[in-house]
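User: Predict DUF2809 domain-containing protein's structure from this.
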Amino acid sequence: MKKHRPYYFILLLVIIFLGIMSRKTDLIPLSTGDFLYAVMMYVFIRILMIDKKGIQIIITSLLICYGIEFSQLYHANWIDELRNTLLGKYTLGQGFLWTDILAYTMGILLAFGIERIVLKRKF
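Assistant:
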C-alpha cells in the first residue's frame, strides 16, 4: 500500500485546488467545499496512516472534521483573529453549521467507497 502514497498525494493536491475553486464562485453551493474538505481530510489521513484499515481512517477523519466544526462554537479573540486570516478561514472555518457535519460525513464515506472500488479493481 505504501507504493500508493504518491498517488494519494497528487489526489490531495487536486482536491485542495477544487475546494479552493469551489469557494471562488457563487455557482457552486457552499456545502460542496465542506464535502471536498472532508474528502481532503480522508486522503490526508490515509497518506499519514497508509497501512491502517479503512474504518480507522474514517473514524480519524470524522473526529478531526467534527472537532474543527464544533470548535467554531468557541469564540475567543485569539482564535477569531486566526479565523480571519486566509489560512485560518480555510482550515478552521467561520461558523458552526449542522449541514457541514452532514457534508463531512458524506464526503468521507464517499471517499472511502471510491477508494475501496478503485483499489479492488486496480491494485
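The radius of gyration is 15 Å.
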